[in-house]
Amino acid sequence: MDTAGQAGGGNPLPSLNTQQKESLTMVIVLQYAEQNALLDSEQLEDARASLRALFLRATGEETMLRKIIDMLRINHSLNKSFGEISQILDGVDKARATLTSKIRAIEKSIEQLSLPVEANNSFASPFYDFSDEFLRNVSKFEHLISEYREAKENEARLAHDYRLAHEARERLKHRFDGKNIEENEHEKEVKDKVYKSFNYGKIESDYQYAKRSADHVGREIKELLAVFKVMCHMAMKPDMRSPDTGKIGANSKTYPDVYSISSSALKKYEELRTLASAIQELLRLYHHSFGMFVLDLNKFNKAIIPMIENIEDYTHAKEMDEDVRHKQDKLEKIKALVAFIEAVALILKKGKDYTYPKFSSLIAATIDQVGASWEAIAEELLRMKVIAEAELSTRIS
Fold first, then answer.
1. What is the pTM of this model?
2. What angle (nearest 5°) sits at the alpha carbon of residue 320, between those of residues 333 and 74?
3. Are 292 and 81 in contact (CB under 8 A)?
4. Mind listing the pLDDT tens digit for each residue in 96-134?
């Protein structure tokens, strides 16, 4: 036992129990989390209630630290989800803006060349048509991805309501069925009315409609990606294409071989050669758009999983700050705080005895550890420690 310190009367200072050591850590963590909005108001109140219970426990454990870690990790996952979805939408918007700029620049340059009629018919006209349709499809993809997010959010909200309604309906049913007392006809009639008036059917139909709507948008995106696949193959060398490219299905639209058209025109019309680099750059953008959009969709589908599982918290996180930069900052702070909590949890797990001054010094040294993964928030954690110690040391028991 650590008896280095002496109380005011000369007696050795008592060692802190696990409960007291955990309490100091908890107050530091909660102060920091509240200061930086890392937990929402409901989570903070839940944590504070657990902290109040911790003060009343006869023996302490590090379970509360684990609970806080779980809360923070859920919030980290939700903020990461929101940030990734926003980045995907921003990326598609930037892709559309880049394509628009490059297409319009080439069109303007071609117009200034005063090409012969044959060149306009064999190259410029089909090139413009292909480019304009590609751009329309990019705009459509941007719209559909945004619509898909809203549809999946709505589906998740209604799925949550549906689960709650289903549970409530089952509880209501069991409550009615569970009574063994004899009932008269009037009581039975009242129960039937209450049970039937519970609007479970509407909630279920709303959820099913939302699910169908989200699935429909998802299918539209996949159909559009099939179009992009064909168009991007038309922008590459013929000998590098798959044998089935050129059309989507037996009755589907075919697309011009924009690569061959461009290659032939550049060889045939000398005046076009000044645009060779710009045309090649545009073909490159056409070609890789399909792959990039497929990756975007895959990333999007992964990013919405935390949202589907925690729709209420996701909605709250979304409403708190839609700026992705704020989300990224919050993510880094959550990661750092979780690392700090885990480091302290290891100290508690060892079960070593400390007096209050010794444990306080140990926590300060842990916070101030050079190169620690929480180093970026260390200064603020030290401030929170000062506040926490003031709160705990002046608590009247």
1. 0.64
2. 50
3. no
4. 999 999 999 999 998 888 888 898 899 999 999 999 999
The tokens describing 289, both together, are 């758009």
DSSP label at 16? P
Residue-wise pLDDT for 341-357, tens only, equals 888 888 888 878 888 88
| Residue 251 amino acid letter | N
Average pLDDT for 326-340: 81
- DSSP-derived secondary structure for 131-186: HHHHHHHHHHHHHHHHHHHHHHHHHHHHHHHHHHHHHHHHHHHHHHHH--S---HH
- Report in angstroms the alpha-carbon separations of 288 from 180, 196, 276: 70, 56, 18
**Chain-centre distance of CA 312, in angstroms?**
13
Determine phi and psi for 4, rounding to 5 degrees. -65, -35
- Looking at the DSSP bridge assignments, the partners of residue 6 are 12
Q: Report the C-alpha gap between 281 and 177 in whole angstroms.
A: 72
Rounded Cα distance between 227 and 248, Å, is: 7
Query: What are the extents of the domains in the chain?
Result: 18-61+322-393, 91-318
Residue 215 and residue 394: Cα distance in Å, rounded?
Answer: 58
